[in-house]
Design goal:
The complex is a heterodimer of chains A (about 375) and B (about 375). By secondary structure, chain A is an alpha+beta fold. Chain A contains 9 helices and 17 strands. Chain B is of the alpha+beta class and about 375 residues long. In chain B, the strands form 4 sheets. In chain B, strands 1-2-6-3-7-15 form a 6-stranded mixed sheet, with helices on both faces. Strand 10 of chain A pairs antiparallel with strand 10 of chain B.
Chain lengths: ~375, ~375
């Protein structure tokens, strides 16, 4: 088993949990400190981030990106397990294997880092809005020529994302008047208002929950604290994904109308980003795909992603992103998995890739050398 | 008539300042220890117990489990903002969590004991206080199982504004849990949203209660929970608690059947947490007649029976044939952010209790030399 991956998975860095977030940032920082890198630390909105570069620059040629936060999981998923050629555990795919991969590679080149022009970007709010981490860092000028981001391509076999659905996060908030549970006519139940509004919203999406349409998830429901007390506040979260902007705007207007009818508030938590398109014909993307073929024998196909990732902050600025991961699946579920062979292959692919594209002009030899990693996986 | 002002208000302030939300069993135990010490110091026989972490006490003037009158109360309260655990006086109203439900009553009980402390041997009454009434409410059940059988009960936890409760709606507490399958929020076709199913289940169920009011069955939906907080994860479980009040005992079975039917439809399960049966008091019982007469004597409010919408521990005593005089002093804002008790009503309660105990809770012939409870309260 990969010890580094094991240790990373064991830290339950659930988005929003400050203690665990600090633990994982400290863990990664400790590793980076040994690798002769220029390290900068950031914190915005309570979410820490680290950027480490081989050169003192904000614009490295290649940025290796990974988010350290994960979604919640049962306790047993924080223990890496290997079975039938697969790793299981929370974050094995999304995306602690990327963290481990980068650290392995940087350790491999640690005595020669000045010959490369690479950056590593680690954030801790991707499962939230991404605005504080990647969004903030890009605003501060961290603009590479290409970003490697294995945060897509889940449930595919070496496919690369060519486009992604847009995404909008919102809260539906119902306010009422509390009273004794036996006297609902003296109060105004926030929970019943919320339920009625959500029921109408869910109806809008009947027959729509498909890969090629606008979809909805209600990730969170919360209303009331005491069984015999009319709730004064109730809330739900909406996660809406879309390919067609006009369809999204239409549905958003209908959702707003439903909320107005039921006297509840619709509040944007993460402003919608339009569907994104990746520049697959960019030379830096094509080079990566060539190394995938060399290593796996597979010619990568492209696909449209249903989820959004922090790639949108780069894509919006025209920066191509290598949005593919080693084979794995069931992200965010209790069966999250990663192919062991694929994980190893990805490291070799990336190592060869940075050897070809990320050497500084002074160090470039003009040759591409396929090499095995010198570190033990 | 003079009013025992300082002590009853002091006691109310001390009790309200303890944030005895039901789940905080430690704080409730502190409150019960406070009450126990007060009563012991004044000569009562105090028994303290704990069941499943919930503390309770029974204090009696005689060493008995069958006092003539048991004054019953609970220290636990529903949640509130931090600053509501403090008595604020505005005119005649004393605001604060528990002022009405039911720390005002407990303060009055303690005050009556203080008044009678030199003559407690002449009386045969008790005080029973539990700390889980707002949730599972096993406290009284357990104490009754231990053999407590008062001849009558006074419970300031029903009725309204000195009007005695004639009928109390039944209270059916149910928990609902719906199952699903988790997946990434962007791929709903790979999962099965428990939150959708709970919303649809509750939307259907609440339709049965549209237009509900004082004279019908009613529904409260609370403690709705689904998801771990992540926007982009499909919840694989969703839960809610239901507080259903029934105007007639015969409504219980169809309501439960309807919930079970909906749970089958939406892949859920339902469980009964606790049930308080519909309660009809015998208003001609001498103890109830005495209590309502004491109310009229002190406050001038004439007897007029009411329907109580909430259930109380009265049903536990009623099941054993023990008559209960149930009312609230003048108060309001039950379980809300504006809970209050009338200051005048608080003082009146002390006098009402003293008068009632004088008539119904003497331990035997006491001669005429000693002062009555009413005289002591008025002094």
């Amino acid at each position: 088993m990969d010890t580094l991956l094991q240790e990373l998975v064991a830290i339950p860095s659930v988005f929003g949990e400050q203690d665990a977030t600090k633990r994982i940032i400290d863990y990664v920082d400790e590793k980076l400190q040994l690798l002769n890198l220029h390290i900068e630390y950031f914190e915005c909105g309570g979410y820490p981030a680290i950027v480490a570069t081989t050169q003192k620059t904000k614009t490295p040629k290649v940025m290796l990106y990974a988010h350290l936060d994960v979604v919640a999981a049962p306790q047993e998923l924080y223990k890496l397990r290997m079975e039938d050629g697969k790793y299981y555990g929370r974050g094995v795919l999304d995306m602690k294997s990327a963290v481990a991969t980068y650290l392995h590679i940087l350790k491999d080149i640690q005595y020669d880092v000045s010959s490369y022009d690479i950056g590593l970007m680690f954030t801790t709010d991707e499962e939230g809005s991404g605005n504080f981490g990647t969004g903030g860092l890009v605003k501060q000028g961290y603009i590479p020529q290409v970003c490697v981001m294995p945060d897509s391509g889940f449930d595919t076999n070496w496919e690369i994302e060519r486009s992604a659905k847009g995404c909008w996060f919102a809260h539906v908030i119902a306010l009422g008047v509390s009273a004794h549970g036996s006297r609902p006519w003296q109060g105004d139940s926030a929970s019943i208002k919320l339920i009625k509004a959500l029921n109408d919203i869910v109806l809008l999406f009947k027959d729509r929950q498909k890969p090629d349409t606008t979809t909805i998830n209600i990730g969170m429901l919360h209303g009331g604290e005491s069984i015999n007390q009319i709730p004064a506040v109730s809330m739900a979260s909406l996660d809406i994904r879309f390919i067609d902007m006009q369809d999204f705007y239409r549905l958003k207007r209908k959702i707003q109308a439903i909320c107005d009818t039921h006297g509840v508030t619709l509040k944007t938590i993460r402003k919608w980003n339009k569907p994104t398109t990746n520049k697959l014909d960019h030379p830096l993307i094509q080079t990566f795909l060539r190394h995938v073929t060399l290593q796996t024998g597979i010619t990568p196909a492209s696909f449209t992603a249903y989820g959004a990732s922090d790639a949108r902050f780069f894509l919006d600025r025209g920066i191509p992103c290598v949005l593919m991961s080693p084979p794995g699946g069931s992200a965010h579920s209790n069966d999250e998995w990663l192919s062991v062979e694929g994980y190893q292959q990805y490291q070799l692919i990336l190592r060869d890739y940075i050897e070809e594209v990320a050497r500084t002009p002074a160090a470039r030899s003009g040759k591409v050398i396929h090499r095995a990693l010198t570190t033990t996986l | 008539m003079k009013i025992t002002e300082p002590l009853v208000e002091q006691l109310l302030r001390e009790l309200v300042a303890m944030p005895t939300v039901t789940a905080d069993t430690e704080c409730n135990e502190r409150a019960l220890n406070f009450i126990a010490s007060f009563l012991k110091e004044r000569g009562m026989h105090v028994y303290q117990a704990k069941h499943d972490g919930y503390a309770s006490l029974v204090a009696t003037t005689q060493k008995t489990k069958t006092p003539k009158v048991m004054l019953v109360g609970h220290t636990d309260v529903v949640p509130a903002e931090e600053d509501f655990f403090k008595v604020e006086e505005q005119g005649d109203k004393l605001y604060g969590r528990g002022t009405r439900d039911m720390k005002g009553a407990i303060a009055a009980y303690m005050t009556v004991v203080d008044i009678l402390q030199r003559q407690l041997d002449d009386y045969d009454f008790g005080i029973m206080v539990i700390s889980d009434e707002e949730t599972v409410d096993y406290g009284v059940i357990r104490l009754l199982k231990e053999g407590y059988r008062p001849k009558s009960v006074v419970l300031l936890d029903g009725g309204e504004s000195w009007h005695l409760e004639q009928l109390a709606k039944g209270a059916l507490y149910m928990s609902i849990a719906v199952n699903g399958k988790t997946a990434h929020g962007s791929r709903p076709w790979q999962g099965d949203s428990a939150s959708f199913k709970l919303v649809e289940l509750l939307a259907e169920f609440q339709q049965d209660f549209v237009g509900h009011g004082p004279e019908t069955d009613t529904l409260n939906v609370s403690n709705i929970r689904a998801g771990s907080g992540a926007f982009n994860q499909i919840p694989d479980s969703a839960t809610a608690l239901l507080d259903i009040r029934l105007i007639d005992e015969s409504h219980k079975a169809p309501v439960k059947a309807r919930l079970e039917e909906l749970c089958r439809k939406y892949d859920g399960s339902v469980e009964e947490i606790v049930y308080f049966p519909v309660l009809k008091h015998n208003m001609d019982n001498p103890y109830l007649v005495s209590f309502r007469d004491s109310i009229t004597k002190v406050t001038g409010v004439e007897y007029s029976p009411t329907i109580a919408y909430g259930a109380s521990d009265a049903c536990r005593f009623d099941e054993l044939g023990i008559p209960c005089a149930v009312t609230y002093p003048v108060s309001g804002g039950h379980h809300s952010a504006t809970e209050w008790i009338s200051k005048k009503a608080l003082h009146d309660l002390v006098l009402i209790l003293a008068d009632h105990l004088e008539k119904t809770a003497k331990a035997g012939s006491q001669g005429t030399a000693k002062r009555s409870a009413v005289e002591l309260a008025a002094a």
